[in-house]
Design brief:
alpha/beta, Rossmann fold, pyruvate-formate lyase- activating enzyme, 3 domains, 23 helices, globular
């Protein structure tokens, strides 16, 4: 009897779906591809998010956009569409060179862009009106000085692209965004119905372009397994369109879905229609589930021994969750991410905001890396501390991390790193800095931390000497009462001293801020804004962002609301996504109204405006006077007492 033929080795293609980032590749496929290659698997990757934007903004894409604009009724068109229509020839002439400039391939174009006579200027350029020089001089001189032409040009070019995004949104797809594309179809949607309806609709220009790019990638690589990683709700719709295109043309190709969105929102999945598009869906860290799936596809493991994997039963049509428990792959052994196959010279360095810290998220191509898996603190009551990506803390040695850094620099030729940890541990950062200095490795890096007292001025200086240029961290509600309720483990005065230590070392500081936390009153919010004003005025922080608190089912607030003085609102039956959950706060505070003033204040503080003014001026309705002494932060910085 002849021996059974050997199973065909799996060829894996990992895809980044639209929309994630335009300035740098989202790192999930780099991690997966590097890990799979370290295990001898034939693995490649592509960034369809970047490819989609570049195709839409190509000469052919621009011509199709013009046709879509021509099909719009003349009445009721926006100023952005009218400007595009009237100056289409200028857009067609300038778009290619502008993209090349943003990709770093044509630096000298900055001079023409800065002349304000090269780019057609649509409504987005009205944002420049906020910068008014009372002496009639250059309104943007405060940001760019007498020179700074390159950055000034990138800011103008970013406004130009935003004008085009507005046209795409009106003429092609009202859900279109450069980052959050159609996220309302997936974010905490209890049923698959809205997404199913969108997927059944006729293809528009964006859909057709993405379908074409997907099929071209399949032809190039001829994979047997396609992995699609969705980090955010704004990447889900396009991920399903990608899978739909593959299943329509190549039904034999196996498709699998994973990523941060799946790990957070699809933990109670029971909707069979999802599996018309994806054959498998995996939860949490992808290494172990992928190894099990590869063995299954190659006939070396039964379906009953898959790891953290959803599939649809062929006989009953019901969704089954299989979790054969096996040890996780240690963080020390996950291998080095690889950017091989990603077009590193085609990413677009944008300059949305003129704040020097805030710009880092959209400006420059950063190699993204994690110092550790999970969070070493994992106590914050607003966080998904019950999930693997937070709860399972696993660190690698400083030697291993710097080995990975050296390998990535050798591969990409770029020395900028963004450490994307939930909160990088101070002990690991200290060891990392020492190892970078020992090897005399010159890199630039930034990342997220907790503002804890372990970050002494001496450690801040060491981190700066190792290449640290910026730090972000959670100040959240800027209220000692609420910080204690959050189990944040820091105080406002401690944050002031720690952030000042970073700033004194020449490291930019960004503060994540929050409003709308359970039992937060109007007075609490006004007091928090006063703390924030003082932190900006004292030079402790240079940037910040106010997030509206959202209660999730995986957080301590969502799991024990009675401990936080709130009552959860009942959820409808869930067969698809489950994450955010409404709650009733007895304080009855109108946080939506407060949010407008908070965002206005922060925008001005980041540009050095209004730092000496009463914080009440930012609100359009009466609010109480801040109870915080106006020199509270100044006194805290002068004190040497422990926090």
């Amino acid at each position: 009897m002849p021996a059974a033929p050997a199973p065909t080795p799996t060829r894996v293609l990992s895809l980044i779906p639209p929309m994630t980032q335009l300035n740098t590749p989202y790192p999930s496929t780099a991690y997966l591809t590097g890990f799979l290659r370290s295990r001898g698997v034939a693995a490649v990757q592509e960034d369809l998010a970047l490819a989609l934007i570049l195709e839409l903004l190509s000469p052919a894409g621009l011509q199709e956009l013009k046709a879509a604009v021509d099909a719009l009724p003349a009445a009721g068109r926006s100023a952005a569409v009218d400007a595009f229509d009237e100056r289409f020839d200028e857009y067609r002439q300038t778009l290619g060179p502008t993209l090349a400039f943003l990709q770093g391939r044509d630096a000298t174009l900055a001079h023409r862009i800065c002349s304000r006579r090269f780019l057609p200027e649509g409504p987005r350029f009205a944002a420049l009106d906020v910068y008014v020089d009372p002496d009639g001089g250059d309104p943007m001189a405060w940001a760019f000085g007498a020179l700074g032409a390159h950055d000034r040009a990138r800011h103008l070019a970013t406004l130009y692209l935003n004008d085009l995004a507005d046209v795409l949104r009106e003429a092609v797809d009202p859900r279109f965004e450069f980052v959050r594309y159609a996220e309302q179809l997936a974010q905490s949607q209890p049923t698959f119905d809205p997404l199913a309806a969108a997927l059944a609709a006729p293809l528009n220009l964006v859909d057709r372009t993405l379908q074409q790019l997907t099929l071209q990638a399949i032809e190039r690589h001829r994979p047997t397994l396609v992995l699609v990683s969705v980090p955010f709700p704004g990447a889900v719709y396009a991920a399903f369109r990608i899978a739909q295109a593959i299943k329509t043309r190549h039904p034999h190709i196996v498709t699998a879905l994973g990523g941060g969105y799946v790990n957070t929102e699809l933990r109670e999945l029971s909707e069979p229609r999802v599996f018309d598009h994806f054959d498998y869906i995996t939860l949490d860290a992808g290494e172990r589930p992928l190894l099990a799936l590869l063995e299954h596809l190659e006939g070396r493991r039964s379906a009953s021994r898959l790891v953290r994997t959803y599939r649809r039963d062929a006989d009953t049509g019901a969704v089954k969750y299989v979790n054969f428990v096996e040890p996780e792959v240690p963080f020390e052994d996950v291998g080095t991410p690889t950017w091989d196959g990603l077009p590193l010279d085609r990413y677009l360095s944008l300059l949305d905001m003129l704040n020097p810290m805030h710009r880092l998220w959209s400006d420059g191509r950063w190699n993204k890396l994690t110092v550790a898996h999970g969070c070493y603190w994992k106590k914050c009551s607003f966080c998904d501390v019950s999930l693997d990506y937070i709860s399972r803390y696993d660190a690698a040695s400083a030697g291993t991390l710097v080995d990975r850094i050296e390998a990535i620099v050798a591969e990409t030729g770029q020395t900028g790193f963004h450490f994307v940890d939930e909160a990088a541990p101070p002990k690991s950062l200290k060891a990392l800095a020492a190892e970078l200095q020992r090897r005399r490795l010159a890199i630039s890096w930034w990342g997220n931390i907790r503002f804890e007292k372990s970050f002494t001025p001496e450690l801040c200086e060491q981190l700066a000497a190792s290449g640290c240029i910026a730090i972000s961290g959670g100040l959240e509600v800027a209220s000692d009462r609420l910080l204690a309720l959050m189990k944040k483990g820091v105080s406002v005065e401690q944050v002031a001293r720690v952030t000042r230590g970073f700033s004194d070392a020449g490291i930019l500081v960004h503060a994540y801020l929050m409003y709308g936390f359970p039992t937060q009153t109007v007075q609490d919010t006004v007091d928090a804004l006063e703390y924030v004003r003082q932190l900006f005025a004292a030079g402790c922080i240079q940037s910040g962002f106010f997030h509206r608190f959202a209660c999730t089912v995986h957080s301590p607030v969502g799991r024990a609301p009675q401990d936080y003085g709130v009552t959860l609102q009942p959820l409808p039956p869930v067969s698809f996504a489950k994450n955010d959950i409404g709650f009733i706060d007895p304080t009855g505070t109108d946080h939506d109204a407060l949010g407008v003033g908070l965002r206005k204040a922060l925008y001005n503080y980041m540009h050095g405006i209004g730092l000496d003014e009463d914080v009440r001026q930012w609100f359009d309705f009466p609010v109480p006077k801040a109870r915080v002494p106006r020199h509270r932060i100044e006194r805290a910085l002068a004190s040497t007492a422990p926090a």
